[in-house]
Write a structure and sequence with these properties.
nine-stranded mixed beta sheet; 11 helices; alpha/beta; globular
């Protein structure tokens, strides 16, 4: 059931399924995707007693900013703060957090900085907290070419291109990032509707410029960004997942980051899965969430 709840900055739209007294799971989507990424994950978790909550991130779907003057920031601290605010608004003291891409970043941030709020963590592509201080250091060409879309967004031509061609552009990313996933037109259209949010372009462009150190963030998140710059360890029980067909971050793409998981941790490589792993390999994602819940006791 689609619901809405107000935080200090947002009117957040979220899907909630399962018994309100079940063990809470927050599932967070990435860019450019939406909550449909979890449509096959949710029923399995519900059958195991979970209360499953999947919010639309800022700039997606029916989620809206409360004030016109609020910076349409897509920086990592904003995503983490939104998740923390959602937990507070829903009066959920502790939940299993799961996500990928932007959503995985939000989940990692809360798990790292507010570990008492995370019963455990499932993170696709490992440690998703950005090291902005080193963002302008060039990488090897094999890795650099995968980030072409980010460099495109650094200029105004990229903003205009995303504005005018957002559905075609995002569909191209789906195809490049999940080459083994044969999604159809209807599957894409269900998620692509979320990109019609009036703040989608502004949030996306700010995200990719901020992470490269090209624009300032929202001052209200300065303290959180300062704490994240230390690349904090994640101590809560964690399972990280990697799709072996991921067109953005192939298996082993973030080996250093795995050292940041200092609690119980297991890394799993999922065959024939691309970047949108929960939707492409729902059984693997479900297994990880259920195992984390069991680990947490």
């Amino acid at each position: 059931m689609l619901k809405r709840i107000a935080t200090n900055l947002l009117d957040i739209a979220y899907d909630e399924q399962g018994d309100v007294d079940g063990w809470p799971v927050i599932l967070l989507h990435g860019f450019p995707y939406d909550i449909h990424a979890y449509e096959d994950v949710t029923p399995h978790l519900m059958s195991q007693g979970a209360r499953v909550i999947a919010p639309y991130l800022r700039g997606y779907g029916p989620t809206r900013f409360l004030a016109p003057a609020t910076l349409r920031s897509g920086q990592q601290a904003a995503l983490g703060a939104d998740l923390l605010a959602l937990l507070d608004a829903l009066e959920i003291e502790q939940a299993v957090l799961g996500g990928y891409d932007w959503g995985g970043r939000a989940a990692c941030i809360v798990a790292a900085l507010y570990p008492s709020r995370a019963r455990g963590l499932v993170s696709v592509n490992g440690y998703n907290i950005q090291n902005i201080a080193t963002a302008m250091r060039p990488d090897d060409p094999e890795k650099e070419h995968r980030l072409w879309y980010q460099y495109y967004f650094h200029g105004e031509r990229g903003r205009a291109g995303l504005t005018e061609n957002r559905r075609a552009f995002c569909r191209l990313l789906w195809s490049l990032w999940s080459p083994s996933w044969g999604f159809d037109d209807d599957t894409y259209a269900r998620s692509a509707a979320a990109f019609d949010n009036p703040d989608f372009v502004d949030v996306v462009i700010h995200s990719y410029r901020h992470r490269a150190g090209l624009v300032d963030g929202d001052p209200q998140f300065d303290d959180m960004e300062r704490r994240l710059s230390a690349m904090p360890s994640i101590t809560v029980p964690t399972i990280t997942l990697e799709g072996d067909a991921d067109g953005v971050v192939p298996p082993g793409g973030r080996p250093v980051g795995l050292k940041r998981f200092t609690g119980r941790h297991e890394n799993r490589v999922v065959p024939n899965a691309g970047h949108n792993l929960p939707q492409e390999a729902p059984d693997a994602f479900v297994s990880a969430v259920l195992d984390i819940n069991a680990w947490a006791g």
